[in-house]
Amino acid sequence: MRILVVENDRLLSGALERRLTEVGHAVDVFATVADAEAAWKIAPYDLSIVDIMLDDGDGRSLVRSVRAAGLRTPTLMLTARDEIGDRVTGLDAGADDYLVKPFATEELLARLRALRRRSAEITASELRIGNLLYDPQTPSLTVGDQVVRLTAQEYAALDKLIRAGERITPKRMLGEHLYALHQDWSDNAVETLVHRLRRKLLEAGATVELKALRGLGYILYETEA
């Protein structure tokens, strides 16, 4: 997933960026309302984490602003105080959940998974196509009765492609899903990743094909067994 982190505590934001990257997410980190608002309007984020207290303003105002602009990104708000007022105003501003500092990183990851499950895009905890069973919460992939090991980035690519259903995923869109704004990436990097994923599916005997459509993008579809 592509995740936006808006946090002015460098130690915390750095720790979040490392942990989220480890589990396969592309992460953009900003410390100010102005920078985050600009990024939010140009990048296709799947989730966002926003602290209430920022260098140049209030995270609640940021969330309220992007909601007014029509952006519905599921948002987890961070607060340093366990006070009902902070929680209520954050939720009223448009946040979907909140977490009080200090917190365990694994709890944050669990809350992000819950937010993702509640988003309109998801209808089941497990996703199937052909003889492929993908569990985004673990994550894990089973082809028939065989467990297939993927890298974090390969899981991220599979997640995007399987959720697209019968829609084509443009190469640029897939790249933006896999890489953060500060990361240099190329079409070749995306092609190499897709090639590895396709090879693993073929070797496992998947009854799906990951097809590249020249000039259009990629699609994952079921084939005959």
Automatic annotation (TrEMBL):
Keyword hit for DNA-binding: yes
Coiled-coil stretches: none
GO MF assignments: phosphorelay response regulator activity; transcription cis-regulatory region binding
Pfam families per UniProt: Response_reg (PF00072), Trans_reg_C (PF00486)
DNA-binding stretch(es), residue numbering of this chain: 124-222
Residues modified to 4-aspartylphosphate: D51
InterPro entries: CheY-like_superfamily, OmpR/PhoB-type_DNA-bd, Sig_transdc_resp-reg_C-effctor, Sig_transdc_resp-reg_receiver, WalR-like, WH-like_DNA-bd_sf
Domain of life: Bacteria
The protein's name: Two-component system, OmpR family, response regulator TctD
Source organism phylogeny: Bacteria, Pseudomonadati, Pseudomonadota, Alphaproteobacteria, Hyphomicrobiales
